[in-house]
């Protein structure tokens, strides 16, 4: 299995990249405009200036991502040693809400929510990074990159301090209420290859807060702030964000509590990013 993993990784990566390129091909002319893209790309001096001004923000985000990846297993060990075990407390707050969400949505919807959770998420996070490079000024792009970095930095701290399993694993947690409604691990059952790959960049206890929710809502807030300049992107961002938030729960990955915490993290990250850019 270990020898097959790189091949599987490259195959899935190719599918994701192809889907992202196709989405960009449709979104760039629709949400940014061909004329705007051509005019910016034609001005090489402007491109160099913009690249120079945005470089410190990209460097900061890259540093946070490198720390997150490099310390992933150490943070996991630290959280198990010193972190607060929150799974049963989360269930005590919200009970069988996630199970009810799964029951309310037809199982066939996994063919929509599964790809949305992976491909839609990549499109949602990456497209505004490109689109805002063609904005009248770089403030939206700086703010978004800074907000991404803040989201990841705070999430790292939360994952180090809180040990929480998602609803799909609740019954296996010591002290769990065995009468709790069952939550199916739909992503694992239907897209097993994807979950094996995501396990390489994440751990099962990193659920509070939901980083999928935090970053998606961050993009939505940025889209609202830039609605006047990119009006067609706002409804697309809203649709993708709503789909991803529902997917996190429908697929059995996150609790509603994680989603609420992720939304709060997004709002705080955008507010702090505004101060950083100012």
UniProtKB/TrEMBL annotation:
It comes from Halorubrum ezzemoulense (Halorubrum chaoviator). This is Phosphatase PAP2 family protein. Keywords: Membrane, Transmembrane, Transmembrane helix. It holds the Pfam family PAP2_3. Residues 111-272 form the Inositolphosphotransferase Aur1/Ipt1 domain. The chain crosses the membrane at residues 12-33, 54-72, 116-134, 146-165, 233-253.
